[in-house]
Design a protein that fits this description.
CATH topology of the largest domain: BirA Bifunctional Protein, domain 2
Number of helices: 13
Helix content: 25-40%
Largest sheet: 9 strands, mixed
Number of domains: 2
Shape: elongated
Structural class: alpha+beta
Strand content: 25-35%
Distance between the termini: 21 Å
Length: 424
Amino acid sequence: MLFSKLLLPTLKDAPQEAEVISHKLMLRAGMIRRVASGIYTWLPLGLKVLRKIETIVREEMDSSGAQEVLMPMVQPKELWEETNRWEKMGPELLRIQDRHNRDFCLGPTHEEVITDLIRNNVKSYKELPLNIYQIQTKFRDEVRPRYGVMRGREFLMKDSYSFNEDEACLQETYLTMRDTYKKIIERIGLDYKIVAADSGAIGGDASEEFHVLAETGEDTIAISDDSEYAINTELLLKEGEDIASLEGKPSPDGKGVIQIKKGIEVGHIFQLGKVYAEDMKANVLNKEGKASTLFMGCYGIGISRLVAAAIEQNNDEKGILWPHCIAPFDINIIAIGYGKDQKIADASIKLYSELKDMGYEVLLDDRKDGYGTKMKDSELIGIPLNLIIGKRFIETNEIELKSRNGDSSTNDISNIKTILDFYK
């Protein structure tokens, strides 16, 4: 992609509305623009990152044996009345009417729709277990949208729902999804904790949250410094414990001591049991030929929120430090004197084509701006590696390589493949 052709409206300073670093940097780096409170347009750079995370999520879900569908965002009132959630959800559920005065809502989640699909199309235990997922836009009418896409009203989410013959089968599927979420977050390269949590409005027998650790996180979690023990302090408060008194105390699992951390919830998995299946009469015939209520699980991971969480963990005073697997581009060619020296322009275009043929995603900065402006923009948007072509190339056939983490070297352009293999 040529920088001069890319819709990339970078900003020197973030608007006053931006409170946390990810919101500031996503606005400054030209990734998103606000349309209304909690609602954003994703620009090309931001969308590239969003799609890369979506691809990782889809690959891991497919690998787990889950099957993808696409359910409607607009859902009828009648289904939500079956589970008594039409009123229970309160103002967070955005209700609308069509031209015939029929009631609908914009889906914040899809338990009712998927349960209706399964009860009408799956009849026997022999068709189980099933784990069905989608990657879909959700809408929750947050009372106070903030932090950019981290706490927006409209967001992109992967939600999946498992249908099982019995509790043991549900537990097996739940653990598979737990492991799948670990793989997703670890592929992205984020520091995280799995946290015992309150099931909230979704309900069910048990649930766990996946928290990316960050000082700007909205949730407070108590974790052991020497084990996997972690719990959302909201759950502790319901049980009457004093959070301040927990610091430095021995962990309940006997390993290490408790530390209080901030986390960004990026995923939540639930063992629903029969909660929705009983209300909606979702049954199959069991081995004895009798109607048996299904056991359900549901599993959500915020794809747009993962973009913000990745930035919260990977930034410095210059801008974003993307993990390589989700960076919008692998390489930026900074051509100094592109419009003045034909040799530099030709060499830049040739290198650009060669790198693309090698499978890299490449940005060629062909603007008339000087080195300082080009490098500042590249550091702001977080491209992992810069290849700088200027006077040195004309004189010695050398280019400078500068990684986003600060490493740099000068090398002969003919050795480019060997050099890139080293940096990779």
